[in-house]
Amino acid sequence: MQLGNLLKFHTHTQTDVETEIEKLGGLFGRVPHETAFGDSNRAAIRAAMNVLIKRSRLVQAVAEHEDGDPYVLGAVLDAVEWLYGNGPAPSIGWIALCAA
After folding, report:
1. Cα(19)–Cα(25) distance, rounded to whole angstroms?
2. What pLDDT score was predicted for residue 9?
3. Of residues 4 and 13, more confidently modeled
4. Alpha helix segments (H runs only) across the chain
5. In sequence order, which residues have a C-beta less than 8 Å from that of residue 33 and are 6 or more positions away?
6. Closest CA to 81 of 12, 1, 3
7. By C-alpha distance, which of 37, 99, 49 is closest to 78?
């Protein structure tokens, strides 16, 4: 692997981002309000959608959520990773939760 490949960021097209926002919006009302531990699934989805809408960079996204719920911050980091990296789409985990 060449060093240049390590430094490349993959970004999704506007259509990819809009599609993912729509998927998350559709899942919002289908997920349980809270996890078994009392974490807010809906707050996490809202935060992930916000990252995608704003196309937030890592520093901006963390700064906006660093004092909040770690569960929500995890969803934010997942959204940033997908947006600028090669992580799975944020909706993937929520789809699995709806199917459970």
Report:
1. 10
2. 58
3. 13
4. 3-7, 14-28, 41-54, 58-65, 70-84, 91-99
5. 40, 41, 42
6. 12
7. 49
